[in-house]
Design brief:
single chain; mainly beta; 4-stranded antiparallel sheet
Length: 67
């Protein structure tokens, strides 16, 4: 996180079954808006795989987990 501005460069990593995706990085904001579509293959509606979403702050050395 940027300590001087108090803002972050957030992005989201997602995982569903074998499909991975990642949003674009939103620079210098605490209120990001991602208008992106991702396709995840669904084999059966009766046995849906879990969807995992993780929010990160992009940093030069190590990305910080935000949620």
């Amino acid at each position: 996180m940027h300590f001087f501005s108090g803002l972050a460069d957030p992005f989201v990593k997602g995982l569903c079954a074998n499909a991975k995706f990642r949003t674009k990085i939103e620079k210098n904001t605490l209120n990001p808006k991602w208008f992106q579509d991702f396709e995840v293959p669904i084999v059966s509606w009766e046995n849906l795989p879990p969807l995992s979403l993780r929010l990160y702050d992009k940093d030069t050395i190590h990305d910080d987990k935000l949620g």
